[in-house]
Design goal:
The chain is α/β, with parallel strands linked by helices. The protein is built from 18 helices and eleven strands. Strand 6, helix 5 and strand 7 form a beta-alpha-beta unit. This is Alpha/beta fold hydrolase. One of its GO terms (molecular function) is hydrolase activity.
Length: 450
């Protein structure tokens, strides 16, 4: 099978090429952790070229799911928290309730079928196997768009925005708003390989994504992301490859250096800030003081987190806790687990099964620690003004770590083509408000279409 899929290739021809690869190639197994049990199959080309676009399908042996349930049921629980709220972390009753459902009522096979309903592939880039979903629109002149997830997300986080972006006419938008979507798994996340050497941080990943898009035949494309995906998109824009026509991020990096320095020093709020800037300053101050513990640990000592590989419950509680409990930005996660709004914050379209799909993917691929290392490999401040010249569209959701003021954003993104503050949504808009996020992406990048 050829490495490249021309941009003009129709969906029918694309599927035909995939079928041909299945017929001509051989199957190799994608192994779970360090065992010999496969959780997926890769169709290898006859010539053994690892840089080819190799079809991939997920199939987890039942024995792995039995082992998962066994480990959940064997959890040794600590004492209950000594406070009546979530201020000490994920509450015992909350995680025990989630664990009981995970072991007795949750069905991974539904997620597996959803994954396999999309065209999935592997390709080796810079010595590392990268997994990705590739869904082409039926509409002519669709814009190629690479969408990158964050932590604790995965490609599963993007499921609900795929159809609205690929098939906009079904959602009241014009065919001219269609996208061809490429949704990769970050290095060390999900089905992408776990790096065995240092160096796979946002900068290298951004360069790899350009290689991936060109390998698929896309000579002009845009990039989208939130959380770590926003960081990758920002860095790609700073690298400014000629193929990149613009970015849309819902996790903007727009904070001036002097503001970050003031917060780090614990100084009083600077004078002269607008009301919008004061609100952002207060959000950032609370975030720095109380909500970055998990990020500090993963950014400095990720290898210490052995519990993420040994205990499903340890993995789940770590992924649920962002130091903010029932506050933003993790309120949607807590609301989804509890089944009701917390502190007035709804989970939106995010469900308990969505979260367990994501957590189970981390468990089955044993990527809790390798995903954490991406923070260790990230050396820039995630909030620092991006200094980007590439056309940029920004959506500042109210439930984000901080709601970026337009005044800061204009200085960080020198070619700001779109800025909006949606009325609802938080740090996980692809999960929480997928229809709104899809609309933001369509509107934000519309001016880049030719």
């Amino acid at each position: 099978m050829s490495n490249d899929i021309p941009q003009s290739t129709s969906r029918r021809h694309f599927v035909g090429m995939t079928a041909a690869a299945l017929a001509a190639g051989s199957l190799s197994q994608f192994a779970f952790a360090d065992t010999n049990q496969a959780i997926g199959r890769i169709t290898e080309p006859a010539n053994g070229d690892k840089t080819a676009i190799r079809p991939f399908r997920v199939h987890v042996p039942e024995s792995q799911l039995v082992d998962l349930r066994r480990r959940i049921n064997a959890t040794r629980w600590p004492d209950r928290e000594t406070v009546p709220d979530e201020s000490q972390g994920v509450q015992l009753a909350t995680i025990q309730g989630l664990a009981h459902y995970w072991a007795t009522g949750y069905d991974w096979r539904k997620c597996e079928a959803r994954l396999n309903s999309y065209p999935q592939f592997m390709t080796e880039i810079d010595g590392l196997d990268i997994h990705f979903i590739h869904v082409r629109s039926k509409h002519e002149n669709a814009m190629p768009l690479i969408v990158t997830h964050g932590w604790p997300g995965s490609v599963i986080e993007q499921f609900k925005i795929i159809d609205p972006l690929v098939n906009p006419t079904a959602y009241g938008a014009p065919a001219s708003d269609a996208f061809h979507l490429v949704i990769p798994s970050l290095p060390g996340y999900g089905f992408s390989a776990r790096p065995q050497t240092t160096g796979w941080g946002p900068e290298r990943t951004a360069r790899a994504w350009v290689v991936l898009m060109k390998r698929l035949g896309y000579q002009r494309f845009a990039s989208q992301g939130g959380d770590l995906g926003g960081i990758v998109s920002n860095i790609m824009a700073k690298q400014a490859p000629p193929e990149l026509i613009g970015i849309h991020v819902n996790f903007p990096a727009s904070v001036p250096a002097d503001i970050l320095k003031s917060i780090a020093s614990g100084d009083p709020m600077p004078t002269g800030l607008s009301d919008e800037e004061k609100h952002a300053y207060e959000q950032l101050s609370v975030n720095a003081k109380k909500k970055r513990g998990y990020a500090f640990e993963m950014g400095t000592r990720p290898q210490t987190l052995y519990g993420l590989a040994d205990s499903p419950v340890a993995l789940a509680s770590w992924m649920l806790d962002h130091g903010d409990g029932y506050g933003q930005p993790a309120a949607a996660l807590s609301a989804a687990v509890l089944g009701h709004p917390v502190n007035g914050h709804s989970s939106g379209a995010l469900t308990r099964d969505d979260l367990l799909d994501d957590i189970t993917l981390y468990w089955l691929t044993n990527t809790g620690v390798s995903a954490a290392r991406f923070y260790w490999e990230s050396h820039a401040n995630f909030f620092l003004a991006a200094d980007v010249n590439v056309p940029a569209a920004i959506s500042a959701f109210p439930g984000e770590n901080y709601q970026a003021p337009k005044s800061w954003t204009e200085k960080a993104y020198h070619n700001l083509i779109y800025f909006n503050k949606p009325e609802t949504g938080g740090h996980f808009p692809a999960w929480e408000v997928p229809t709104i996020l899809a609309s933001e992406v369509r509107t934000g990048l519309r001016s880049l279409r030719t």
